[in-house]
Amino acid sequence: MFLTAKTLRPDSLGSSDRPDRRGARYHRAHLGRGSAGSAVIPRIKEETPQRLETCGRVALGDRPERLEIDSTPLSTWPDVAVSSAAEGYVVAVAKDLTKPKLAESKKERLHRVDQGLSDELVALNEELQAQNQSLRAARAETVRLLTEQSSLVRRLQETLLDIPQELPGVKFAHIYRSATQQAQVGGDFYDIFEAKHGRIGLLIGDVAGHGVEAARTAALSKDTIHAFAHQFRRPQIVLREANRLMVEKKLPGFVTAFLGFLDPQSGTFIYSSAGHPAPLLATDGQIACLQSIGSPLGVFADACYRDSETVIGEGSLLLFYTDGITEARRDGDIFGEERLVDSLKRLCNRPVETLPSLLLDEALGFSRGLFRDDAALLCVNYLGKTIGQGPGRRKSEPSPVVRCDNAP
Fold first, then answer.
1. Mind listing the pLDDT tens digit for each residue in 293-316?
2. Residue 233 phi, psi (nearest 5)
3. How much is the CA Rg of the chain, to the nearest whole Å?
4. Which of 68, 207, 329, 354 has its CA at 20 to 30 Å from residue 114's CA atom?
Protein backbone atom coordinates (compact mmCIF):
# COMPACT_ATOMS: atom_id res chain seq x y z
CA MET A 1 0.00 0.00 0.00
CA PHE A 2 1.20 3.53 -0.69
CA LEU A 3 -0.01 7.11 -0.87
CA THR A 4 0.04 9.26 -3.97
CA ALA A 5 -0.59 13.01 -3.78
CA LYS A 6 -1.79 14.91 -6.76
CA THR A 7 -2.68 18.58 -7.16
CA LEU A 8 -5.50 19.21 -9.56
CA ARG A 9 -4.97 22.48 -11.40
CA PRO A 10 -7.63 24.67 -12.97
CA ASP A 11 -6.05 24.27 -16.40
CA SER A 12 -6.43 20.48 -16.31
CA LEU A 13 -9.63 20.50 -18.33
CA GLY A 14 -11.81 17.49 -18.74
CA SER A 15 -11.69 14.41 -16.62
CA SER A 16 -10.15 10.99 -16.78
CA ASP A 17 -9.15 8.01 -14.68
CA ARG A 18 -5.57 6.99 -15.12
CA PRO A 19 -3.02 5.15 -12.99
CA ASP A 20 0.24 6.70 -11.98
CA ARG A 21 3.42 4.75 -12.38
CA ARG A 22 2.79 3.02 -9.05
CA GLY A 23 -0.66 1.91 -10.01
CA ALA A 24 -2.68 4.35 -7.90
CA ARG A 25 -5.71 5.78 -9.58
CA TYR A 26 -6.68 9.45 -9.26
CA HIS A 27 -9.13 11.91 -10.76
CA ARG A 28 -8.45 15.32 -12.23
CA ALA A 29 -10.96 18.03 -12.97
CA HIS A 30 -11.31 21.81 -13.40
CA LEU A 31 -12.54 22.80 -9.97
CA GLY A 32 -13.38 26.08 -8.31
CA ARG A 33 -14.54 26.71 -4.81
CA GLY A 34 -18.23 26.15 -4.68
CA SER A 35 -18.26 23.67 -7.56
CA ALA A 36 -20.53 20.67 -7.42
CA GLY A 37 -19.25 17.39 -6.08
CA SER A 38 -19.46 15.78 -9.49
CA ALA A 39 -16.59 18.05 -10.59
CA VAL A 40 -14.28 16.50 -8.02
CA ILE A 41 -14.65 12.92 -9.27
CA PRO A 42 -16.13 12.37 -12.72
CA ARG A 43 -19.14 10.02 -12.99
CA ILE A 44 -19.79 10.59 -9.30
CA LYS A 45 -23.49 10.63 -10.07
CA GLU A 46 -23.20 7.01 -11.00
CA GLU A 47 -21.76 6.25 -7.56
CA THR A 48 -23.68 6.17 -4.33
CA PRO A 49 -25.31 9.37 -2.99
CA GLN A 50 -23.01 9.20 0.01
CA ARG A 51 -19.95 9.69 -2.18
CA LEU A 52 -21.56 12.53 -4.10
CA GLU A 53 -22.39 14.26 -0.84
CA THR A 54 -18.81 13.83 0.41
CA CYS A 55 -17.31 15.38 -2.72
CA GLY A 56 -19.80 18.24 -2.58
CA ARG A 57 -18.74 19.14 0.94
CA VAL A 58 -15.09 19.21 -0.13
CA ALA A 59 -15.79 21.57 -3.01
CA LEU A 60 -17.79 24.00 -0.88
CA GLY A 61 -15.55 24.15 2.15
CA ASP A 62 -12.06 23.91 3.47
CA ARG A 63 -12.41 20.78 5.58
CA PRO A 64 -10.81 17.71 4.00
CA GLU A 65 -12.84 14.56 3.57
CA ARG A 66 -12.04 10.92 2.89
CA LEU A 67 -13.98 8.54 0.79
CA GLU A 68 -13.47 5.06 -0.61
CA ILE A 69 -14.11 4.54 -4.29
CA ASP A 70 -15.18 1.01 -5.28
CA SER A 71 -13.84 0.43 -8.76
CA THR A 72 -15.01 -3.18 -8.84
CA PRO A 73 -15.27 -3.35 -12.63
CA LEU A 74 -11.56 -2.41 -12.76
CA SER A 75 -10.73 -4.73 -9.84
CA THR A 76 -9.23 -1.80 -7.88
CA TRP A 77 -10.25 -0.10 -4.69
CA PRO A 78 -8.54 3.29 -4.00
CA ASP A 79 -9.06 5.18 -0.75
CA VAL A 80 -9.15 8.86 -1.81
CA ALA A 81 -8.74 11.87 0.48
CA VAL A 82 -9.58 15.24 -1.12
CA SER A 83 -9.28 18.74 0.26
CA SER A 84 -9.65 22.24 -1.16
CA ALA A 85 -6.24 23.79 -0.55
CA ALA A 86 -6.99 27.06 -2.34
CA GLU A 87 -9.54 28.42 -4.73
CA GLY A 88 -9.43 26.39 -7.84
CA TYR A 89 -7.15 23.72 -6.40
CA VAL A 90 -7.88 20.35 -4.84
CA VAL A 91 -5.34 17.99 -3.32
CA ALA A 92 -6.18 14.32 -3.76
CA VAL A 93 -4.32 11.60 -1.87
CA ALA A 94 -5.03 8.08 -3.13
CA LYS A 95 -4.26 4.97 -1.09
CA ASP A 96 -4.34 1.73 -3.08
CA LEU A 97 -6.49 -0.74 -1.17
CA THR A 98 -6.63 -3.32 -3.95
CA LYS A 99 -4.64 -6.05 -2.23
CA PRO A 100 -6.37 -5.81 1.13
CA LYS A 101 -9.69 -5.48 -0.66
CA LEU A 102 -8.97 -8.57 -2.70
CA ALA A 103 -7.96 -10.37 0.46
CA GLU A 104 -11.10 -9.12 2.19
CA SER A 105 -13.21 -10.13 -0.79
CA LYS A 106 -11.63 -13.58 -0.79
CA LYS A 107 -12.19 -13.81 2.93
CA GLU A 108 -15.82 -12.85 2.45
CA ARG A 109 -16.22 -15.42 -0.30
CA LEU A 110 -14.61 -18.05 1.88
CA HIS A 111 -16.85 -16.99 4.73
CA ARG A 112 -19.87 -17.33 2.51
CA VAL A 113 -18.65 -20.73 1.36
CA ASP A 114 -17.93 -21.72 4.96
CA GLN A 115 -21.30 -20.42 6.00
CA GLY A 116 -22.93 -22.29 3.16
CA LEU A 117 -21.08 -25.46 4.08
CA SER A 118 -21.90 -24.91 7.71
CA ASP A 119 -25.57 -24.46 6.91
CA GLU A 120 -25.43 -27.52 4.68
CA LEU A 121 -23.73 -29.52 7.42
CA VAL A 122 -26.30 -28.33 9.95
CA ALA A 123 -29.11 -29.35 7.60
CA LEU A 124 -27.41 -32.68 6.91
CA ASN A 125 -26.90 -33.27 10.62
CA GLU A 126 -30.54 -32.51 11.30
CA GLU A 127 -31.52 -34.88 8.50
CA LEU A 128 -29.26 -37.59 9.89
CA GLN A 129 -30.68 -37.08 13.36
CA ALA A 130 -34.18 -37.39 11.94
CA GLN A 131 -33.16 -40.54 10.06
CA ASN A 132 -31.55 -41.97 13.20
CA GLN A 133 -34.70 -41.25 15.13
CA SER A 134 -36.75 -42.95 12.42
CA LEU A 135 -34.36 -45.92 12.47
CA ARG A 136 -34.60 -46.15 16.24
CA ALA A 137 -38.38 -46.05 16.00
CA ALA A 138 -38.32 -48.67 13.22
CA ARG A 139 -35.95 -50.83 15.26
CA ALA A 140 -38.19 -50.57 18.30
CA GLU A 141 -41.20 -51.47 16.15
CA THR A 142 -39.29 -54.41 14.67
CA VAL A 143 -38.38 -55.64 18.15
CA ARG A 144 -42.00 -55.30 19.20
CA LEU A 145 -43.24 -57.20 16.15
CA LEU A 146 -40.61 -59.92 16.59
CA THR A 147 -41.59 -60.25 20.24
CA GLU A 148 -45.24 -60.53 19.27
CA GLN A 149 -44.37 -63.01 16.52
CA SER A 150 -42.29 -65.08 18.92
CA SER A 151 -45.16 -65.08 21.37
CA LEU A 152 -47.55 -66.07 18.57
CA VAL A 153 -45.18 -68.81 17.45
CA ARG A 154 -44.99 -70.18 20.99
CA ARG A 155 -48.76 -70.16 21.36
CA LEU A 156 -49.17 -71.75 17.94
CA GLN A 157 -46.66 -74.45 18.79
CA GLU A 158 -48.39 -75.08 22.09
CA THR A 159 -51.70 -75.41 20.25
CA LEU A 160 -50.28 -77.94 17.79
CA LEU A 161 -48.64 -80.03 20.52
CA ASP A 162 -51.15 -79.50 23.32
CA ILE A 163 -52.32 -82.93 24.48
CA PRO A 164 -53.57 -84.17 27.87
CA GLN A 165 -51.14 -85.22 30.54
CA GLU A 166 -52.88 -88.60 30.97
CA LEU A 167 -55.86 -90.65 29.86
CA PRO A 168 -57.27 -93.87 31.32
CA GLY A 169 -55.97 -97.10 29.87
CA VAL A 170 -52.91 -95.67 28.11
CA LYS A 171 -49.53 -94.08 28.74
CA PHE A 172 -48.01 -91.87 26.09
CA ALA A 173 -45.17 -89.50 25.26
CA HIS A 174 -44.33 -87.27 22.33
CA ILE A 175 -41.61 -85.08 20.83
CA TYR A 176 -41.33 -82.52 18.05
CA ARG A 177 -38.31 -81.07 16.26
CA SER A 178 -38.43 -78.24 13.72
CA ALA A 179 -36.34 -78.57 10.58
CA THR A 180 -34.59 -75.26 11.37
CA GLN A 181 -33.88 -73.24 14.49
CA GLN A 182 -35.18 -70.14 12.71
CA ALA A 183 -38.60 -71.59 11.93
CA GLN A 184 -39.29 -72.87 15.49
CA VAL A 185 -42.64 -74.21 14.24
CA GLY A 186 -43.71 -76.25 11.26
CA GLY A 187 -46.56 -78.21 9.79
CA ASP A 188 -46.41 -81.36 11.96
CA PHE A 189 -49.15 -81.91 14.53
CA TYR A 190 -50.55 -84.66 16.74
CA ASP A 191 -53.24 -85.12 19.32
CA ILE A 192 -54.63 -87.65 21.77
CA PHE A 193 -58.09 -86.94 23.14
CA GLU A 194 -61.27 -88.42 24.57
CA ALA A 195 -63.77 -89.19 21.79
CA LYS A 196 -67.36 -90.43 21.66
CA HIS A 197 -68.45 -93.50 23.64
CA GLY A 198 -65.41 -93.53 25.92
CA ARG A 199 -62.91 -94.11 23.14
CA ILE A 200 -59.51 -92.46 22.78
CA GLY A 201 -58.76 -90.51 19.60
CA LEU A 202 -55.23 -90.74 18.21
CA LEU A 203 -54.23 -88.26 15.51
CA ILE A 204 -51.08 -87.29 13.69
CA GLY A 205 -50.65 -85.09 10.60
CA ASP A 206 -48.22 -83.25 8.42
CA VAL A 207 -48.76 -80.09 6.33
CA ALA A 208 -46.67 -79.54 3.22
CA GLY A 209 -44.20 -76.72 3.85
CA HIS A 210 -42.46 -75.16 6.83
CA GLY A 211 -42.70 -72.19 9.12
CA VAL A 212 -45.59 -70.11 10.40
CA GLU A 213 -47.84 -70.53 7.35
CA ALA A 214 -47.60 -74.32 7.56
CA ALA A 215 -48.20 -74.15 11.31
CA ARG A 216 -51.31 -72.06 10.75
CA THR A 217 -52.70 -74.64 8.30
CA ALA A 218 -51.74 -77.40 10.74
CA ALA A 219 -53.65 -75.74 13.57
CA LEU A 220 -56.76 -75.34 11.39
CA SER A 221 -56.50 -78.94 10.21
CA LYS A 222 -56.11 -80.29 13.72
CA ASP A 223 -59.08 -78.29 15.01
CA THR A 224 -61.23 -79.33 12.03
CA ILE A 225 -60.48 -83.04 12.47
CA HIS A 226 -60.93 -82.75 16.21
CA ALA A 227 -64.35 -81.11 15.78
CA PHE A 228 -65.64 -83.79 13.37
CA ALA A 229 -64.23 -86.52 15.64
CA HIS A 230 -66.78 -85.48 18.25
CA GLN A 231 -69.60 -85.87 15.73
CA PHE A 232 -68.81 -89.17 14.00
CA ARG A 233 -67.71 -92.59 15.26
CA ARG A 234 -65.88 -93.67 12.12
CA PRO A 235 -62.43 -92.23 11.26
CA GLN A 236 -63.12 -92.39 7.52
CA ILE A 237 -66.18 -90.14 7.92
CA VAL A 238 -64.23 -87.69 10.03
CA LEU A 239 -61.51 -87.47 7.38
CA ARG A 240 -64.06 -87.21 4.57
CA GLU A 241 -65.88 -84.28 6.16
CA ALA A 242 -62.67 -82.56 7.16
CA ASN A 243 -61.39 -82.90 3.60
CA ARG A 244 -64.54 -81.40 2.11
CA LEU A 245 -64.35 -78.41 4.42
CA MET A 246 -60.64 -77.85 3.77
CA VAL A 247 -61.15 -77.96 0.01
CA GLU A 248 -64.06 -75.54 0.34
CA LYS A 249 -61.99 -73.11 2.43
CA LYS A 250 -59.05 -73.45 -0.01
CA LEU A 251 -56.43 -73.96 2.64
CA PRO A 252 -52.91 -73.63 1.16
CA GLY A 253 -51.02 -76.83 0.40
CA PHE A 254 -52.19 -80.28 1.40
CA VAL A 255 -52.27 -82.30 4.61
CA THR A 256 -51.54 -85.93 5.33
CA ALA A 257 -53.22 -87.35 8.42
CA PHE A 258 -53.82 -90.57 10.31
CA LEU A 259 -56.76 -90.89 12.68
CA GLY A 260 -57.70 -93.85 14.90
CA PHE A 261 -60.12 -94.55 17.75
CA LEU A 262 -58.97 -96.91 20.49
CA ASP A 263 -61.51 -98.56 22.77
CA PRO A 264 -59.64 -98.96 26.07
CA GLN A 265 -62.15 -101.50 27.35
CA SER A 266 -61.79 -103.95 24.48
CA GLY A 267 -58.50 -102.99 22.81
CA THR A 268 -60.24 -102.49 19.49
CA PHE A 269 -58.51 -99.94 17.31
CA ILE A 270 -60.25 -98.61 14.20
CA TYR A 271 -58.32 -96.27 11.98
CA SER A 272 -58.11 -94.51 8.61
CA SER A 273 -55.35 -92.69 6.76
CA ALA A 274 -55.23 -89.67 4.46
CA GLY A 275 -51.92 -90.37 2.73
CA HIS A 276 -49.92 -90.45 5.99
CA PRO A 277 -47.06 -92.89 6.77
CA ALA A 278 -48.40 -96.03 8.44
CA PRO A 279 -47.96 -96.16 12.24
CA LEU A 280 -46.07 -99.08 13.74
CA LEU A 281 -47.56 -101.52 16.24
CA ALA A 282 -45.08 -103.34 18.50
CA THR A 283 -46.36 -106.42 20.31
CA ASP A 284 -44.03 -108.85 22.10
CA GLY A 285 -41.09 -107.68 19.99
CA GLN A 286 -42.97 -108.07 16.70
CA ILE A 287 -43.59 -104.99 14.53
CA ALA A 288 -46.62 -104.53 12.27
CA CYS A 289 -47.53 -101.61 9.97
CA LEU A 290 -51.07 -100.28 10.18
CA GLN A 291 -51.57 -99.65 6.48
CA SER A 292 -54.56 -97.71 5.18
CA ILE A 293 -55.06 -96.04 1.81
CA GLY A 294 -56.40 -92.53 1.25
CA SER A 295 -55.69 -89.20 -0.47
CA PRO A 296 -54.19 -86.25 1.39
CA LEU A 297 -56.67 -83.74 2.78
CA GLY A 298 -57.42 -80.52 0.94
CA VAL A 299 -56.81 -81.84 -2.58
CA PHE A 300 -59.90 -83.62 -3.97
CA ALA A 301 -63.33 -82.67 -2.71
CA ASP A 302 -64.82 -86.11 -3.52
CA ALA A 303 -61.97 -88.15 -1.98
CA CYS A 304 -63.02 -91.34 -0.17
CA TYR A 305 -61.33 -92.96 2.80
CA ARG A 306 -61.43 -96.47 4.26
CA ASP A 307 -61.45 -97.78 7.79
CA SER A 308 -59.28 -100.63 9.01
CA GLU A 309 -59.61 -102.39 12.34
CA THR A 310 -57.37 -104.41 14.65
CA VAL A 311 -57.23 -105.54 18.26
CA ILE A 312 -54.32 -104.32 20.31
CA GLY A 313 -52.88 -106.51 23.01
CA GLU A 314 -52.01 -105.48 26.52
CA GLY A 315 -48.64 -103.81 26.72
CA SER A 316 -48.53 -103.18 22.98
CA LEU A 317 -47.00 -99.99 21.71
CA LEU A 318 -48.29 -97.73 18.95
CA LEU A 319 -45.74 -95.45 17.25
CA PHE A 320 -47.03 -92.53 15.17
CA TYR A 321 -44.50 -90.45 13.23
CA THR A 322 -44.13 -87.97 10.39
CA ASP A 323 -41.93 -88.41 7.33
CA GLY A 324 -39.32 -86.03 8.74
CA ILE A 325 -38.05 -89.08 10.65
CA THR A 326 -37.91 -91.61 7.81
CA GLU A 327 -36.61 -89.02 5.29
CA ALA A 328 -33.61 -87.97 7.39
CA ARG A 329 -30.70 -88.03 4.92
CA ARG A 330 -27.01 -88.83 4.87
CA ASP A 331 -24.88 -88.94 1.72
CA GLY A 332 -27.83 -89.59 -0.58
CA ASP A 333 -29.29 -92.31 1.68
CA ILE A 334 -32.38 -91.98 3.90
CA PHE A 335 -33.09 -93.29 7.38
CA GLY A 336 -36.18 -95.03 6.04
CA GLU A 337 -38.89 -97.19 7.52
CA GLU A 338 -36.67 -100.27 7.86
CA ARG A 339 -34.18 -98.48 10.11
CA LEU A 340 -37.08 -97.07 12.14
CA VAL A 341 -38.50 -100.60 12.57
CA ASP A 342 -35.09 -101.91 13.63
CA SER A 343 -34.70 -99.06 16.12
CA LEU A 344 -38.17 -99.71 17.55
CA LYS A 345 -37.38 -103.42 17.96
CA ARG A 346 -34.27 -102.56 19.99
CA LEU A 347 -35.89 -99.87 22.08
CA CYS A 348 -39.51 -100.93 22.51
CA ASN A 349 -38.90 -102.27 26.05
CA ARG A 350 -37.71 -98.87 27.24
CA PRO A 351 -40.13 -96.74 29.26
CA VAL A 352 -42.59 -95.06 26.94
CA GLU A 353 -41.67 -91.67 28.41
CA THR A 354 -38.17 -91.96 26.98
CA LEU A 355 -38.96 -93.69 23.70
CA PRO A 356 -39.74 -90.66 21.46
CA SER A 357 -36.47 -88.92 22.28
CA LEU A 358 -34.50 -92.16 21.84
CA LEU A 359 -35.99 -92.77 18.40
CA LEU A 360 -35.37 -89.16 17.44
CA ASP A 361 -31.74 -89.54 18.47
CA GLU A 362 -31.47 -92.60 16.21
CA ALA A 363 -32.59 -90.56 13.19
CA LEU A 364 -30.41 -87.59 14.16
CA GLY A 365 -27.39 -89.83 14.59
CA PHE A 366 -27.94 -91.24 11.11
CA SER A 367 -28.31 -87.76 9.52
CA ARG A 368 -25.43 -86.21 11.53
CA GLY A 369 -27.83 -83.96 13.40
CA LEU A 370 -29.47 -82.38 10.33
CA PHE A 371 -33.14 -82.64 9.34
CA ARG A 372 -34.55 -81.34 6.08
CA ASP A 373 -38.10 -81.57 7.36
CA ASP A 374 -39.96 -81.17 10.63
CA ALA A 375 -40.23 -84.35 12.65
CA ALA A 376 -42.77 -85.55 15.19
CA LEU A 377 -43.16 -88.75 17.20
CA LEU A 378 -46.10 -89.92 19.34
CA CYS A 379 -45.77 -93.17 21.32
CA VAL A 380 -48.83 -94.75 22.96
CA ASN A 381 -48.57 -97.72 25.33
CA TYR A 382 -51.84 -99.62 25.71
CA LEU A 383 -52.10 -100.78 29.31
CA GLY A 384 -54.69 -103.50 28.68
CA LYS A 385 -58.39 -104.27 28.43
CA THR A 386 -60.45 -103.27 31.39
CA ILE A 387 -63.61 -105.48 31.30
CA GLY A 388 -65.02 -108.70 29.99
CA GLN A 389 -61.82 -110.28 28.68
CA GLY A 390 -59.96 -113.32 29.95
CA PRO A 391 -56.20 -113.47 30.29
CA GLY A 392 -55.80 -115.44 27.08
CA ARG A 393 -57.11 -112.60 24.95
CA ARG A 394 -55.37 -109.79 26.75
CA LYS A 395 -52.32 -110.40 24.56
CA SER A 396 -54.07 -111.08 21.26
CA GLU A 397 -52.11 -110.64 18.05
CA PRO A 398 -53.03 -107.80 15.68
CA SER A 399 -55.74 -108.91 13.26
CA PRO A 400 -56.40 -106.23 10.67
CA VAL A 401 -59.90 -106.09 9.24
CA VAL A 402 -60.64 -103.81 6.30
CA ARG A 403 -64.03 -102.15 6.27
CA CYS A 404 -65.03 -100.20 3.14
CA ASP A 405 -68.45 -98.86 4.00
CA ASN A 406 -68.93 -95.13 4.68
CA ALA A 407 -71.64 -95.40 7.31
CA PRO A 408 -71.07 -93.03 10.26
1. 899 999 999 999 999 999 999 999
2. -85, -25
3. 51
4. 68
